[in-house]
Amino acid sequence: MTDVWTSAGVLVGIAGAALTGWLWLDAVAAIAVALNILKEGVELVWRSSQGLMDSAVEPEVQATIDATLQQFVAAQAPGAVRFDHVSTRRAGQRQFVDMHLHMPADWTLRHAAELRGQVERALMAAVPGLRATIELLPSDVEAHFDDPRDEPKDEVK
User: Fold this and answer.
1) Which of 21, 61, 96, 126 is 20 to 30 A off residue 3, Cα-Cα?
2) Is the model's pLDDT at 92 over the cut of 90?
């Protein structure tokens, strides 16, 4: 599109100056074209650099993730499971979510792994292209002691 606007600007500048006799019109058109090229260049560099940087997912995606996790919390016995340390990131076109899934210590490994698989599949269905990593922990174990993220405000209940 920059080439199209450049060509159009050149034509407008030359035609405008030729038809009106105002020679400065060509210079004004050239300045407008140059500013457009500069703007497009800055946007291109910005978009390219963002593909290399990690950032959090959009708020709508985070809300979808939280709602999906809430469905699993609600489907279990009260207080049976909880999610914490939910962190998301976007790297280029890919999206990732990492979290801890706390469950009763007396659950079998099979039961815990089945639930983790269900949560992963539900998250990936809710947010196409999302990759989920879920660490399983007994309910009475916190992975990070004295970490502000262990406070209940970060938990999905």
Assistant:
1) 21
2) no
pTM for the structure as a whole: 0.60
Tokens of 103: 């469950």
Q: What is the CATH number of the domain that holds 93?
A: 3.30.70.1350
Q: Which two tokens stand for residue 134?
A: 């879920």
Can you give the residue range of the structural domain that contains 27?
A: 2-50
Domains held by the chain: number: 2
Give, in degrees to the nearest 5, the angle at Cα 74 between 73 and 77.
85
Distance, CA of 123 to CA of 109 (rounded, Å): 21
In this structure, the answer to whether residues 64 and 42 fall within a common structural domain is no
- Alpha-carbon gap, residue 5 to 45, rounded angstroms: 19
Burial 7-40 (b: 16+ CB within 10 A, else e): eebeebbeebbeeeeeeebbeebeeebeebeeee
> Does 148 lie in the same domain as 89?
yes
Q: Identify whether the C-beta of residue 88 lies closer than 8 Å to the C-beta of residue 56.
A: yes
- Sequence letter at residue 27: A
Question: Are 32 and 78 part of one and the same domain?
Answer: no
Task: Give the mean pLDDT of 3-28.
Answer: 81
The identity of residue 5, as a single letter, is W
